[in-house]
Amino acid sequence: AAxxxxxxxxxxxHMYAQGMGVxxxxxxALEFFRKGAAKGHAPSQNxxxxxxxxxxxxxxxxxxxxxxxxxxxxxxxxxxQFNLGAMHIAGLGxxxxxxxxxxxxxxxxxxxxxxxxxxxxxxHLNGLGxxxxxxxxxxxxKAVAERGPWGSxxxxxxxxxxxGREEAPLQLYASLAEGGYEVAQSNVxxxxxxxxxxxxxxxxxxxxxxxxxxxxxxxxxxxxAQGNVAxxxxxxxxxxxxxxxxxxxEGAAHHYRVAAESRDAQASFxxxxxxxxxxxxxxxxxxxxxxxDQAMDASADAYLPVQLALLELRLVAWWQAHTGRSDSxxxxxxxxxxxxx
Length: 341
Description:
about 0% strand, mainly alpha
C-alpha cells in the first residue's frame, strides 16, 4: 500500500471493514477502498460500493453503490456482478427487475460465484426472470451442493491416484458417487472401465470380468443421467459390444444419439456407422452421411476417419442399388451367420 499498489488498498480495505487481524474500522476501510477505486481497481470499487449500499461509515446511497458496482462489473469483477443482481432483485436504487438480476447473476456464476449459482437455482425453480424449470434449477443447486466439504475427499482420491494407489481412491470415488456426486460417478466408472479393458480377469475392489464391467456400466449410467456426455458415449459402447450387458444395438444407438446432440464427434461417427449398416437403426445412406458430416464439424481430427468411412458408405449404397436390398453386406453377413448356428 505504501507503494500505491491498488490491490493492497483493496486487501487493507477488506481487513479493516471486517476486522480481520486489525480492529474493525469503517473509516479506515473507506479510506483504502477510495484510494484503490481512484486507480480504477475493480475489487476496490466493489468494496466501496458495498460500504455505500449498507451505509457502513458513510451515508447510505444506493445510487452511488450502483455506479461503483457497474464500474467494477464492467471490469469483470464477479462480486460486483453479484451485487448488481442483488440490487435489481431487491429494487435497491433501481426498479425491481428479475430479468436484469438473472443476467448479472449469470455473469457472476460463470466465474464460479457460489451465491450467484444458488440464486440462479432459486430463480429458475420459481420462474423469476425466466421460465420455471426444475431440471435447470437442479443443475445450479447441484453445483452449489458439490462445493461442500466433501470436495476434499475428491481431492484426496485424486492425490491417491497420482501417488500410484488404486484401491483406496476407487473406494473414495465410489462412496462419493453413491451420494450423487457426478464427477465421482464418472471418475470411478472410467477407472473401472480402464481396468476392465486392460486386464478384465484381474480383480480390483473385489470385482473382475463381467461383474467389473457391470459396475462400470452402472456408474456411467448414473453420470449420464446428470448430463455427462462422455458417459453417454461409453454406455453406447458397452451396449454395442456387450461389455457386462447383453448386446443391444438399439440401446447403443440411443446413447450415441444423445451424445451426438451435444456435438460429440465420436458419437456422431458411431451413429453414422450404425445407419450405414442398419445396426439397431434402419439402414439409411443419407442419414449416415449427415452424421459423418456432423462428426467432421465437431472435430477436425475426424476428417480422415470420415473420408475412409464415406468410401465404405458409397460401397454400401452401390450394393443396395445393385441387389435391391435395404440393408448392408455387414448386416447380411451377420444374419447369415446367425441362421447357420
